[in-house]
Amino acid sequence: MPNPAVWNVVFDAGSDAGIVLAADFPVTGRNEGGFAELLPHLNPDFSLWQTVAPVRAPETGAPPEEYLAAWLSEIEASGRVVRAVMGYCAGSVFAGALAEKLAERQAVAPAVIVFDPELVDVPTAHLQFGRVVGNMTAILTEAEIAELAGTAELLAAKPGIEPTEFAAELYAVFTPIGRGALLRAGLAEDYADELVAMVGSFMAYLCAASGLDPRPGWARATVVTSGSERSGLNRMRTTPGVAPIVIADEHRFEVEHRDLLRTPAVAETVAGLLAARPEGGA
């Protein structure tokens, strides 16, 4: 079994089964559905491994290759074939990069299925931070929400700012505010610190994704697109300066971005894609 600090085994179909990888940053209580919700509807004959991002603060600026290297080493140690790589939102960047690396190591390249994929830039990090704050509105004061939102907007408008600088400066402002709100809500100090660090790790995860080019992997990907205008291909196709994104196929569903992985029609489509194994695949 892989190191649980590197891969979370959502489902184990046995040592002879192929693996499907899922790149995501799931946290308890988030509004978006996750791969654990999708899995039961897939009738899996494969094991599902989900990425575990390292605990890091965004100011460390860790190279994205460190994320990929840890994940890939565990796959190689398992000796098992990866049938497909899936990714959700910013996780689709890592999915595309992992798929390209695995295509060099396996006789048959894994299939690639991504859900509202995002190229990570400052607007993406800004949007994702807004979702983090949105999940905390029950414990943040109006003044705190306004301060965090205002800081994020000022930083996002700063000429030439890069995702790592944006995330590091925003996290520095968030840390005391978020910690204070969690303590007011009655959480123990160590748990409050853990949750604040998780936000930092998420921002660092976005920074790492911003340093990868997933488009070679996406070129043979099937994309599952929601009806949310500010997510995935919908946003990229209307954003000036974003080069055309080449993909192999697309399935659109008129559901919210947050509901993609919990929608039965999506699960039915994905089950069909995973059942159509490439010749020689596991």
TrEMBL record:
Lineage: Bacteria, Bacillati, Actinomycetota, Actinomycetes, Kitasatosporales
Gene3D superfamilies: alpha/beta hydrolase (3.40.50.1820)
Organism: Kitasatospora setae (strain ATCC 33774 / DSM 43861 / JCM 3304 / KCC A-0304 / NBRC 14216 / KM-6054)
Name recorded for this polypeptide: Polyketide synthase thioesterase domain-containing protein
